[in-house]
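Hi all, posting the design record for the shared folder.

TITLE: backbone redesign
STEP: 1 of 1
STRUCTURE INPUT:
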């Protein structure tokens, strides 16, 4: 029986996922990695002249520009490795959710995900219980909520007032396959991810 070595497995995975474009200030990409992806046809976009935005901001901005307005609401951008490191980086990544609120961007870590629920409409969140939950939370970042109502949670909110320095919804439990959220403020939704290893 043939068994792949770790190096073969790494190379197989690397060769399967070739990005169309690599964009950023290029201060953290190793030269051999840059050379490899360039040789595979990836376009390298060096934005080192722009130090006012993060690499993630540069990438999401490119996706935003390339996506027609009418398609943005159907697009879902998954950002892996967005949480669990330096807090200033995490805060900058969360800020991206607000800067590009007309797109659905999901920040992923090993143990949770975060996405923005804009106040513009009622949200229906379908829970993938095989990988998500049960713990969840809702946070009014940027402005307090004078009225937030939910369904599908163990401890539902009914026109609840939330703000930092007062009540926020943390350590709640998803109790149904569908959670609904309606609020007069933009909210961050977070839900735990199950360890599948």
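Okay, here is what came back for every position:
SEQUENCE:
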């Amino acid at each position: 029986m043939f068994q792949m070595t770790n190096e073969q497995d790494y190379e197989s995975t690397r060769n399967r996922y070739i990005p169309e474009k690599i964009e950023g200030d290029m201060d953290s990409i190793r030269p051999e990695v840059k050379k490899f992806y360039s040789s595979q046809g990836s376009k390298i976009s060096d934005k080192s002249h722009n130090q006012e935005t993060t690499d993630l901001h540069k990438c999401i901005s490119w996706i935003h520009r390339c996506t027609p307005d009418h398609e943005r609401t159907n697009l879902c951008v998954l950002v892996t490795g967005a949480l669990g490191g330096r807090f200033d980086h995490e805060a900058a990544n969360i800020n991206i959710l607000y800067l590009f609120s007309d797109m659905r961007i999901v920040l992923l870590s090993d143990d949770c995900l975060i996405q923005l629920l804009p106040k513009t409409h009622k949200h229906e969140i379908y829970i993938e219980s095989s990988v998500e939950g049960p713990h969840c939370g809702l946070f009014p970042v940027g402005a307090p909520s004078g009225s937030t109502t939910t369904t599908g949670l163990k401890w539902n909110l009914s026109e609840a007032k939330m703000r930092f320095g007062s009540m926020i919804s943390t350590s709640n439990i998803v109790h149904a396959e569908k959670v609904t959220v309606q609020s007069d403020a933009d909210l961050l939704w977070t839900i735990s991810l199950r360890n599948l290893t």
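COMMENT: The domain at 112-197 is CATH 2.60.120.320 (Jelly Rolls).
Let me know if anyone wants the other runs.
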